[in-house]
Fold beta-fructofuranosidase.
Amino acid sequence: MSELLQKARNYESKAAASIAAKDRPAFHLTPLCGWMNDPNGFSYYDGKYHLFYQYNPYDIHWNTMHWGHAVSSDLLHWEYLPAALAPDESYDCNGCFSGSAIELSDKTHLLIYTGVKQHKLPDGSLRDAQVQCLAVGDGQNYRKYEKNPVIDASKLPEGASKADFRDPRIWQLSDGRFCCAVASRPSDGSGQILLYVSSNGFDWTFWTVLDSNKNRFGKMWECPDFFKLGEKYLLLVSPQDMLAEGEFNNGNGTLCLIGTFDEKTGKFCEEGKQIIDGGMDFYAPQSVQTPDGRRIMIGWLQNWDTCSIREAGSPWAGQMSVPREVFVKNGRMWQKPAVEFDNLRKDEVSFNNISMDSKQMSFDGVKGRVLDMEVNISPDADCYSCTIRLAEDKNFHTDLIYRIHEHTLTIDRRYSGTRRALMHTQVCKILNDSKDLNLRIVLDKNSVEVFLNGGEQAMTCAIYTPQEAEGISFIADGKACLDLKKYSLKV
Ligand code: FRU
């Protein structure tokens, strides 16, 4: 093992011991210590789900990336394993960036990731060289391949940037060949996804361009994920520098393209496009296929535009979303918490046919910061808005506001205890025409995840409100009928 990896492992085991379990979310994965961003290498290997993550163990800020590592049998209870990768080779000395994983026929676990090495330009500025590299392991320890990098600038198509070439996503074609989708920046300055193929997972050749942004959705597309779901193929990417347009928000966003894919030509035909999550904090999702054939997606429950929300002295920074099953319905990707999460439900408390009006209402047993809740709101014709107030006490609250005539859901965390002037509200136009709104609200200590109308849309945000703020209340501007079911969780 390299000195750098040994150093990271020694450091993290000591640093993690000083983080109390009560200071972590109950079922959302956080870094063992320090900083986490993208999920990496999300795979099912040797009877367990493996989830790696972009990791700086030494600080709660992004810096030279390592890969952290955790395993789980149910996607909710995670066991930390020692850091898997450190930036210990000449080709990755400035970071082991995002990537993916697959099991090989000899039962080893293959990781493919981006190695970053910076060089100085004549004007003194630094420029990345990003290349794709391999590491092979047993689910705990990984050895970098001696012929790394396996995909470098010599395998780029004409005009593609050597500095923005990252986040390889590996899978197997039906003929057994390995295929890899890599994010790239073509000469128009936007994004494209390149495909590489390999017969053995080690020797790669450039195949084709899977899809090009052509400056439609932001600029560079980061972190591609690509998979078949039913009859369709879904390409998930995280575009940088989005302009707000229709359902898409500004900044670092998420995009799902649904279409068809021809395995012979490598051609992807786009048929539909949508945002993946309309809240403030969801980025770089990756998915895995479960042994029983479901497609489960996990995203970084944070965003580059909002990550400075963490205060100095916080025990950790960054967390993963709840695992979400994705499925295609009416030509769009829907998502809902994985059934493993449903199985945690206990102690149902329900209230039906409640008349809501301008009086703020709360209900016995409906409070807490770790829970699952289903709410149905049926507003009267003249009702203007309905608000659900979460993580509330006399100083703090985070609101979900249903504005009936605009047909929007707003998430507003301005009063969640943040001292930073970041993006604190986000508005989602509700797609389902019905005036009745169904919300599934998943709360963990530091997050709010909302699934609208059976999972047609989702909105996610992180909150760092003191845990004592555990009130939940409801208020209508006008009259509305409310049904609610609240569950505690076996965590
Ligand atoms: C996306 C990203 C990736 C890169 C990683 C670096 O959040 O920018 O493109 O591999 O983070 O940590």
Observations:
- The domain at 3-16+28-340 is CATH 2.115.10.20 (Tachylectin-2; Chain A).
- Residues 379 and 480 are 4 Å apart (CA to CA).
- The pocket of beta-D-fructofuranose is lined by residues 37-38, 54, 65, 97-98, 114, 166-167, 222-223, 283-284 (CB under 6 Å).
